[in-house]
Design a protein that fits this description.
Elements lengths: L6 E7 L6 H14 L3 E8 L5 H11 L5 E6 L5 H10 L1
Parallel strand pairs: 1-2, 2-3
Length: 87
């Protein structure tokens, strides 16, 4: 009898609009080979389109283990990680 283990990875992001598609693509490839992983992106109040891009990617790829938590205001990486862990 094997263990069914899921690892939740919190990925804090802030104004990553220029590179977020590359990151999402790489995580998609990783997730395909490692089904025990889930990724929670925590947008730390970005002022660019980072959160919108992640949201659109998740909508277009709804079966992927990737989700988004938006924070209203920038509070720093530590706060973003803390919020992600709390969820």
């Amino acid at each position: 009898m094997g263990l069914d283990t899921t690892f939740e990875v919190v990925v804090p992001v802030y104004n990553e609009g220029d590179m977020i598609w590359r990151v999402l693509s790489e995580l998609t490839a990783f997730a395909a080979d490692n089904p025990g992983f889930r990724f929670l992106f925590v947008d730390d109040g970005s002022t660019d389109d980072t959160a919108d891009q992640i949201e659109n990617y998740c909508a277009d790829n709804s079966t992927l283990p990737i989700s988004l938590l938006r924070l209203e205001a920038n509070r720093g990486k530590g706060a973003a990680v803390h919020e992600g862990i709390a969820r």
